[in-house]
Amino acid sequence: MRAISIVCWFAIAATAQTNGSVEAALKVYDAWAGATVSDREYPSAAIGIVYDQKLIWSKGYGFADIAAKQPATPATLYRIASISKLFTATALMQLRDEGKLHLDDPVSKHLDWFRPVNRHPDGPDVTVWALLTHTAGLPRESAMPYWTTKEFPGRAEMIRMLAAQETVYPSETQTKYSNLGLAIAGEIVTKVSGLPYERFIEERILRPLEMKSTLVRPQAATPGLATGYLRRSPGQARTAEEFTDTKAITPAANLASSVEDLAKFVMFQLRTSDPILRASTVREMQRVHWVLPNWQGGRGLGFQIRRVGDQTRVGHSGSLGGYRSRLEFVPASKIGVIALINANDGDADRFVDQAFSIVGAAITRSAMASAQPKKADPGWDKYVGKYYWKTSEDEVMVLDGELSLITPDAENPWETRTRLDPVAEHTFRMRGGYAPGELLKFEVDSSGRVVRYVAPGSFRLRRN
Fold first, then answer.
1. Are 327 and 230 members of one domain?
2. Rounded Cα–Cα distance for residues 292 and 306 (Å)
3. Whether residues 264 and 354 fall in one domain
4. Residue 141: alpha-carbon gap to chain centroid
């Protein structure tokens, strides 16, 4: 049996896109995600999958707050950490489109206090573009150990300390991730627009996109905010992480949002037109502006870009005390995935990668073909469920009109799928799997309830 129970909320939109193999892939992905949250004992995870302009599937697993036993849902708020940078970048591009700044403007043109110690006077000026592509050569952080102490600088303090901080590399010579750089980018938004950063993001981005739950400056007591937790210690209960207010670093790391709200941001990225940003500007932000040395990824304007197989994925990850997150989409196929976890040892990338591998591939197949799924025998419902043998677990499902067997906690459960072709009452021939062509038999008790199945090799897996 599983070490912890899974409390979840589930929704599949009834769209043309979620037919046949897509619905089957969602079932398999759901089983894998539930098994992963349970096996790794995450407090909770919330996941959403977007196809073009619809959130086609979303689900919460586990507890947003363990002590209160508050179930996680796609509406649960999580700190999204560095995904905040995408909103800062969007704000700057709005101002650029309005002619209020240019990407090649020196930062000092807009912020007269921007005077770090320049160790490379022969290099180019630090520009707005360099901030957005993380090629400014600035230190990663402001000059305080705030990720350890949780004491973040206020705006005046950050500005004062910047005057004593040195540039690390000449600008525009290599990429170097910098939270300080995006905090400064947020200062440009405030200076050029004449609005406080929080107000600009709320009025110019969140409100038009109807992201009603997203907060620029959440508080520890914000209703609906998942509690962040430390890493799991074997044999011990999870401990809550101290709340983080990033203050002057807010434009780089402070926002809180939900799967449902972030899905709206992904949809915005996949549209051909939008009132808050020109389509050409959206494409410009998603384009590679700086290639990484390994040629497997690069930097857009605010975005991380990586090459995975034959896909170019655009998005950003996030890491803040008690939370891990990843938002990523493929413009070419109009598929996006959001994964939010409230634990320091959460691996959001794993959930995103598996969603693309299982569900994204099915969406692509569905978009390329109009074949209708087979019609399932309604009598097969009695076999559906989880079956156990010692420490192993399998799950019987109806997928694409075929009775199927998968291993939900496998590295890729879709690849474990064995189709079960009926040959007699309670007896099926395995198509694929570890014993293709052999028989699998379900056993029933005196009341007719399925209690186990017997697989080749005399393996008897009892039903949960």
1. yes
2. 9
3. yes
4. 24
pTM, entire model: 0.86
Structure tokens at 75: 């509406």
Specify the length of the chain in residues: 464
Residue 9: HSE in the Cβ half-sphere, 13 Å Cα cutoff = 18
If asked whether residues 249 and 357 sit together in one domain, one would say: yes
52 and 347 in contact (C-beta within 8 Å)? no
Task: List the one residue out of 115, 110, 10 whose CA is nearest residue 55.
Answer: 10
pLDDT in tens, 317-350: 999 999 999 999 999 999 999 999 999 999 999 9
CB contact set of 167 (below 8 Å; sequence gap of 6+): 116, 117, 118, 119, 120, 123, 126, 136, 137, 138, 139
The half-sphere exposure of 203 on its side-chain side, counting CA atoms within 13 A, is: 10
Same domain? For 242 and 325 the reply is yes
The kind and range of the H/E element at 131 are helix 128-133
C-alpha R_g of the chain: 25
pLDDT tens digits for 351-360?
Answer: 999 999 999 9
